[in-house]
Amino acid sequence: TGDQDLQFRDPEKAEQLTDKLESLMDDIGEPVTIMHVCGSHEQAIAKYGLRSLLPDGLTIRMGPGCPVCVTDMPEVDEAVTLAEDGKIVATYGDMLRVPGTEQSLDDAKADGADVRVVYSASEAAEIAEEEDREVVFFATGFETTAAPTAAVLVDDPPENFSVLSAHKYVPPAMEIVAELPDTDVDGFLAAGHAATITGYGLFEEFVEEYETPAVVGGFEPIDILFGLARLLEFIRDDEPGLANAYQRCVTEEGNVPAKELMWDVFETTTGEWRGIAEVPDADLILSEEYSEYDARERFEIEPDVGGADPLTEDCICGDIMAGTADPDECPLFGEECTPQNPVGACMVSSEGPCKIWLEYGGQP
Ligand code: SF4
């Protein structure tokens, strides 16, 4: 409720927590880098100016937590090709301006293709019910949107409906980032909303294998500061622990029916996360049982693309998503690359770090 939200924005509590962070950093006695893995965390950190409250030596970096940003160019090319071939392509609004190799869906729309913005997979299925033509849902996002896509597919959607899945599964990407030689992360603030589906218990293996603490955090200022304090406690105690700092929404096992639904419809495969790396088991594709709704099975999708805009070669979005660079280190930031004319995907989405940093005046 609104009252609950206010409770998690209480300035007095925030001050107590920042004092605690300061004293924990004194105990630790060396710089600490925490990575969060969620665009909504970056939005909240920027909106409430939380970086300015952090003690010296404590750095928060964003990891691969923006689904729009990590959707790979060839996936956008597939959607553009389907739209140009006369299919109705329905997708989330943020996806329209994400650059493909040559074109975005917005460009295809300007050239006459039928591209529609939807707020959910079920809305895309409703379009298919009303239309005779093929409707392809370009499905993007992490576990939180994969589960609703799965719910539509198990509910006997219209025959002219199919899914082009660019859904991604976060935990394997965290492992890749933890292994990258240039990424020096002391602890992970895991995304609260993905954990409402997967449960926080999922991170146990990660914490054990990488001997790095992880804390699931919510999205209000107090949630984030509290999550950081739990992480610093683990780091001070040299304990690779796991904690749930978002107990009002997240349980150990998560939403079991949603998880079952998701793993009924999807399976994982190796896939490229834009600019970061090839990540094993982190792309979600339709399982054999639902292959009749798989746009890649139903249509021959052969994007005829030449080369990318040379400017995109300067885009360091992948490094930002891997936690090795900040948006203002990109030479194009706020100059050639703006939300009106995005060069890279990180400037498109409301969860994209470049767009967030520019909106909040540089280095939030
Ligand atoms: Fe890429 Fe634009 Fe961000 Fe630079 S500012 S990293 S070009 S999205």
From TrEMBL:
It comes from the Archaea. One of its GO terms (molecular function) is 4 iron, 4 sulfur cluster binding. GO terms for biological process: protein maturation. Keywords: Iron, Metal-binding. This is Hydrogenase maturation factor. InterPro entries: Hyd_form_HypD, HypD_1, HypD_2_sf. It holds the Pfam family HypD. Belongs to the HypD family.
